[in-house]
Specification:
homodimer, mainly alpha, 23 helices, globular
Chain lengths: 467, 467
């Protein structure tokens, strides 16, 4: 019996303990059981001892076996359009990586913008901005495509984890990590769990917070945030090198290595461009976000940019199908069985008398800084976003404002720790910063985000009519 | 432009041609369009030029884009319990293969039963019977596990495709191929497309033709068919060798090679045994077929017989999710949009005056022998099973009888050709028979099947109260 085996059992102990306590006043037994299963599943996600899909499958099948969720409903999350948006986007992102297009676009950004160390920072931000809407796994985008390039740039500048990490590497890694979170916040397809928020918005407010709505609300504060990041980071982690010539040589070599554009890359640019166009113009043609993604996938197959055999082996997509679809079902069940409304009633009593805006700001801050307690953005979203929507829904605030505040905070709050999400773990893991620096700068960056999104964001949201 | 590229376009030409013709009298435009998409998709499956999942995805996205199926409904097939039964069963079957348990069980059957050439035939039938309910891809079971053993037995007996194929190899291969179809017919989980039939039964008759019902109706005629197969094949393709000692030596060596049972194999036997028990005792606990399969999967994960990482890489399961889920949606849509009832009305007019039993027999024979025109059991089921149910539903016959006749015929009719389904293609492809022999014996075996299932079957079904 190893320690890990014991840790596996923690969520079961917690669930059992809660069950012994019995439901609090006014909460129905079924709703209480569903809450226990949900909390235990989220707890298991946070422990990261078993794969996410396994935690979710266990929670799901337990709910089915004790008759809390009928099988028919339990599988609904696997046929949900938000789930399939992410699955299809993962499949497409796999093609972006396999064709080498992602790497080529990043290298091109660096070649064009990287004339100074700060220019390299801007190049990283630009790469994130281009890939942000298209690679829905922020881990694949930041950790898989961009972080390796950032690491190799640092090394080319003579800055290595063991040898003068602060001369350039720390700066570049911090810019990369935090830029990743900003683009994850900006686009519905910027982060795998974002559709959970859109789905909760649909459930609570009956609002279709679709791709173009999400992007519209996020584009201005997001761009301001990205534009300022390389500058503010010059103060928070000042690099000491002056010449970046070694990087420029290295990048030129890397681009030469890639050779001329392949036809697959050209077709991908066309297909991805069409998808972005269609996503932004839903008002004209009426095709939803998932429909457009499906079309993109079919075009990739029809034009043979990738074969079905290649796509079906992208097991990250199927892994996501299971955990996301299952988590969606659990989140729906906890609402349908009445836990969320019970919770909301109780919280409302405590919050009476607060001005709506004051309430929203308090909720946003609680949501943002509670991320210190979570080891995973996805679990944080799954556990809290829906509940906060319900609490805020009793105000007379425009739902778009409430959804936007929570939607954008959901990824931005990952700045706080070095374990919040895959790419952060990878950027930090490259070894250029110590934890203390990472936490300190993370806290300062959280003020930076909150200032931009509360000030620039609220002005922009006023302008587009969200309040 | 290769020939295959041209063949890809055939279904589009057919669809376009039908569209030019316009809908026949009394058929609504939407129903007609849906029919065209469905027929083109089935046509594309039959051509086997592109992967099944790709054909289905194209048909599905076309239906969404032209607004025939709303996106919400279009994804329902991916959250359907029949689809997930098959997906989970594929995942479990992958573990049966990876742990080596499937091979071990087959070898043990041969070791125990294989005392003569006919005994080897019985050993093959016994292997199929044991693995039939558990390995839902008849291709994985017949083609992946058993056919390689059959081939190696034949070679051990000195019977090779190039050298005296008829001395033993043809006999063993024919027994293997036709035994595979019988076990595919006997169990809901014996063949990947069987749940399509159960689903159609639910749609047309509101009858839950679940795992135990399916197995109950099929067990007696199925066992009779398996018991007679090695004997009748002695006449249809008489082997000439007398001693099978070389095989016995070979099998002993193979079993010795496997070594002692691993704990994974032991756990798998326990888990699979529990699943079979729970599947057969639904009346007591009320858990459906899919719930039990999900439980089995979770137990495999919890007891670490396989890791989630291994399971998620079983891309055959995800491939099946896409084609089966999509096909289910298309089949539902063609019914919901009114094509099936229009078709049924027209056929009914032509069939008036026929006695119900006569009608059922005619329908069964049409269904069975129309397999000559299909290159794939799945496409045959998807195209015809639902329509036949609808036509037969106007009689006063017990729905269980109608469903049973079609359900069991669906795999048995694969006996007719050498291209009907994966394992047949593989057994034939091993090269021990020429096509003419295969077709001739296939036709004779079809008489064998029809006699058993019409005579023994109908007596048995009378006994269990199906008519």
């Amino acid at each position: 019996m190893e320690l890990n085996d014991l840790k596996v059992a923690y969520p079961i102990f917690i669930g059992f303990f809660l069950w012994l306590l019995g439901p609090p006043n006014g909460l129905e037994h079924d709703a209480f059981l569903m809450f226990i299963i949900f909390i235990s599943t989220i707890g298991s996600l946070l422990l990261r001892v078993v794969p996410m899909a396994m935690s979710v499958l266990i929670g799901l099948s337990f709910s089915i076996v004790i008759d809390l969720i009928p099988l028919k409903d339990a599988l609904k999350g696997f046929g949900d359009s938000t789930t399939w948006l992410v699955v299809i986007a993962f499949l497409i992102a796999g093609v972006i990586m396999e064709t080498g297009l992602g790497r080529r676009l990043s290298l091109m950004c660096i070649d064009m913008l990287g004339r100074s160390i700060m220019g390299l920072g801007y190049a990283i931000c630009a790469s994130e901005l281009i890939l942000g809407p298209l690679v829905p796994s922020n881990t694949a985008r930041g950790g898989g495509i961009i972080a390796p390039i950032v690491d190799s740039m640092s090394r080319a500048l003579g800055s290595e984890p063991e040898r003068s990490p602060k001369s350039a590497g720390e700066y570049l890694h911090l810019v990369g990590a935090h830029a990743n979170l900003i683009t994850a916040a900006m686009f519905l397809t910027g982060m795998a769990a974002n559709p959970l928020i859109a789905r909760a918005a649909q459930d609570v407010f009956q609002v279709d917070f679709d791709w173009s709505t999400w992007a519209l609300g996020g584009i201005v504060p997001g761009l301001v945030g990205l534009a300022g990041l390389p500058i503010i980071m010059m103060y928070l982690s000042p690099p000491t090198i002056h010449s970046i010539d070694p990087v420029r040589k290295r990048i030129s070599l890397d681009i030469a290595d890639l050779g001329p554009w392949t036809w697959q890359e050209r077709y991908m640019v066309l297909i991805l461009g069409s998808m972005l166009l269609l996503w932004s113009t839903k008002a004209i043609h009426g095709w939803g976000t998932t429909t457009v993604a499906l079309l993109g996938l079919v075009l990739i197959l029809v034009f043979k940019v990738a074969s079905w055999d290649q796509l079906v082996k992208n097991h990250k997509a199927w892994d996501t199908l299971i955990w996301l679809g299952g988590l969606l079902t659990l989140a729906t069940a906890i609402k349908d069985l009445g836990f969320i409304s019970w919770f909301s009633d109780h919280v409302d009593q405590g919050l009476e008398g607060l001005a709506p805006f004051g309430l929203l700001i308090i909720l946003a801050l609680i949501y943002f800084y509670s991320m210190y307690l979570f080891s995973m953005l996805t679990a944080h979203i799954a556990a809290l976003a829906g509940a906060i929507f319900v609490v805020a829904s009793d105000t007379n605030l425009d739902p778009y404002l409430i959804i936007g505040v929570i939607a954008y905070s959901s990824s931005l709050c990952g700045c706080l720790t070095n374990y919040s999400t895959g790419p952060i773990i990878i950027y930090f893991g490259n070894g250029y910063s110590n934890p203390k620096t990472w936490f300190k700068i993370g806290l300062l960056i959280s003020f930076y985000h909150l200032t931009i999104w509360f000030v620039v964001g609220s002005l922009w949201w006023k302008f587009i009519g969200w309040w």
